[in-house]
Amino acid sequence: MELNLLNQEEIVTLRNLLSNATNIVICAHKSPDGDATGSSLAWMHYLNQIGKTNIKVCMPDATPDFLHWLPGHNSIIRYDRRPKEVKKAFKEADLVCCLDFNQRSRVDTMQEVLDSSKAPRLLIDHHLEPETNNALTVSHPEMSSTCEIVFRLISQLDGYEKMTTQCASCIYCGMMTDTGGFTYNSSRPEIFYIIGQLLAKNIDKDEIYNRVFHNYSTNALRLRAHIILNKMKVIEELHASYYTVTKEEMAQFHFIKGDMEGLVNIPQQIKGLKLSISLREDTEKPKTVLVSLRSCNGFHCQPMAAKFFNGGGHADASGGRLNCTIEEAEQIAIKAILYYKEELQ
Ligand code: 5GP
Ligand code: MN
């Protein structure tokens, strides 16, 4: 099966970038998810495998608890906790690998550190509209996940044979989380071929599923139930739904990072639903609302994320943020739904 993504010129560029690098930084987007964290760590494992010993994985902030089992996770350096170490790593780097983000602004406040680095940049990503001012841009929005791209790159670099179970587990995790457990964005035969190749590396796929998806605290499950029961609004005639979550509600259920992960997908279980919007107050920054959008059944939420929510993402899974109160955010969501009423009907 054809897995190669790079043409001859690109593979030469990649090989040169890697062979010339000694001090390597790997970074991913703010609020790193399964794909951002999995792909960064998988790439780290691969680089270790080819003899690179000085690799720093730098993330803007925390990963959710359900990813802490990922092999190599304890080597991650958080910019919000250890800014000096991150600055030093970027300063000393002779290669910076940017995984799972398309625009440098997606690393949030870590951007100034990223921008200050003089090292060549390698971008590996699957979001739409990537920045291309890199030494090599490996951007494939048609891929399920950055982890899938990482697998294909390792394979094209002849690294599959020596791939470790740890590396394979990180890749599987990101492919699984970015496709909702292979329920969307995952219909190409190559994806299941790659899963077969990962299984041949002795990954425990059921254990990975349990660690990621069966990891709620009782409070988290009750918070999610509360939102669906008491907060979810459904505009039946427009096949759209939205909910708001306030800081007070999160405090009531002892919210920790990750507790709301994936909840925006749940309203899509309603027959015929085309759009689901999540509006959640930021627990740290005042007057900031975090927005997640999901679409299906022929509607695509990405343009809505860009036009109404200062964001973007994938065609059917996008995000953004608003600098306003949660009540104002709700009004913007209603306006956005009505703006697209023809397509949603
Ligand atoms: P989530 O809803 O899981 O936070 O994000 C869904 C998708 O939208 C992710 O692939 C993420 O990269 C993208 N996304 C989330 N927030 C933003 C944002 O503020 N700007 C852009 N361009 N994309 C975003
Ligand atoms: Mn991703």
Automatic annotation (TrEMBL):
Listed transmembrane segments: none
Domain of life: Bacteria
Official protein name in the record: Phosphoesterase RecJ domain-containing protein
Residue span, DHHA1 domain: 255-335
Stretches assigned to the DDH domain: 23-175
A single GO molecular function term of this UniProt record: nucleic acid binding
